[in-house]
Known about the structure:
Layout: H1 4-29, H2 37-43, H3 50-61, H4 64-74, E1 82-85, E2 93-94, E3 97-98, H5 105-114, E4 121-125, H6 130-135, E5 153-158, H7 161-172, E6 178-184, H8 201-229, E7 242-246, H9 252-261, E8 266-268, H10 284-292, E9 298-301, E10 310-313, H11 317-327, H12 356-369, H13 373-384, H14 389-400, H15 429-436, H16 451-469, H17 475-506, H18 510-527
Parallel strand pairs: 1-4, 4-5, 5-6, 6-7, 7-8
Antiparallel strand pairs: 2-3, 9-10
Amino acid sequence: xxxxxxxxxxxxxxxxxxxxxxxxxxxxxxxxxxxxxxxxxxxxxxxxxxxxxxxxxxxxxxxxxxxxxxxxxxxxxxxxxxxxxxxxxxxxxxxxxxxxxxxxxxxxxxxxxxxxxxxxxxxxxxxxxxxxxxxxxxxxxxxxxxxxxxxxxxxxxxxxxxxxxxxxxxxxxxxxxxxxxxxxxxxxxxxxxxxxxxxxxxxxxxxxxxxxxxxxxxxxxxxxxxxxxxxxxxxxxxxxxxxxxxxxxxxxxxxxxxxxxxxxxxxxxxxxxxxxxxxxxxxxxxxxxxxxxxxxxxxxxxxxxxxxxxxxxxxxxxxxxxxxxxxxxxxxxxxxxxxxxxxxxxxxxxxxxxxxxxxxxxxxxxxxxxxxxxxxxxxxxxxxxxxxxxxxxxxxxxxxxxxxxxxxxxxxxxxxxxxxxxxxxxxxxxxxxxxxxxxxxxxxxxxxxxxxxxxxxxxxxxxxxxxxxxxxxxxxxxxxxxxxxxxxxxxxxxxxxxxxxxxxxxxxxxxxxxxxxxxxxxxxxxxxxx
Length: 530
């Protein structure tokens, strides 16, 4: 079918939108059935929520007609946001002919979202793709209407303030407004990890806090000019911009501190919800493996075919499946999904570096070019380490819903962040939300470092490993290491001041936290090769 990927995405998103709206209407109607469904819904909100307080007050004190009217006026679906990894923009073919760029995977996904009836945000992650950014200009829903409203909004994941400035202005020049900058901890998160050159989340959030007004004003000026040049209406005031953060948050105190001190609009939790079957489609065996995982079981791997470090669970079943094939002298996977077929190292269509076809060719090339047995063995191991995460990350959902895995195989990939080490049991949605809002505690361990210290230690480990593998005399690498070293030093000093002033809000021991910083600073200076 022509344009099947975009059409399938549009159909799925429209179906999801219809389903969610139907569920909301059914929930409203459940009042007449004297069901407690709406009670459960509002009970999930924090106790400080005005909506929660109003609902339960009206239920106790108002007549049924007034309660029902309030529910109809105030209960509505949230946004169904859609994420695109911008670099996953594989070229596609019809027969032997390469299709135009708009049929690339990320372009088709954007088109599928743009043609859907959703009123929500497109989340762009994993860096810039200038061709994809330009493609946004083709769709009216991304431009403001006559009243300045945006039907479809843009959210960009960034790791530092400079990235927000660059990407925000790049899109503003096209007449596209960024409605949310989502700051993600580079290493203290799940999935692919993007090391941020020593820029720690605390100092980064401080920079956003101090420069929020300037960030918005500078981009709005460019935005107005671009819309005027396109002959489009433009608002007299800057549209709303949200600033949010995610990565490694584990306690209600951390959640509240990020919201209040850094004046964020929202804070995201991801990894702990892998233990909540109501929130994710995940099989029981994977839940058990995640619940038992400790620090050493969660590691930054090189298994991703994208060539980007990937947070991994040691001894997951997909990697075991890969290792069995290696032992059988049949390395690589059948490329079922082909989402990561991006390597153009060999002639013909791009290939995935985890595929059987690519690994065979690569190993033959290595064997033909190397006489050193030890270096050859290591080079081959680096090739065969790649795992088929395209299928592996989706297999758990198939197993959980008793759907055949004949095409994909039964192996499961899973990519929790380091924070998983401190959550150790399957939880209900109510229990997890209660943990976030400080109503209960799901963390059985009491030795978890706070999110700032944990992220610092992860960046330090990464930096020391990188300096150990740097080539001596490589001026570019040495200059980069000096830059990272200085950023880590600056971050440590920032946290000393932050902890001294705000340890009570963070609910941490000041002496313990300062001692941890001292030890990490010593590691930085002793383990550094700057």
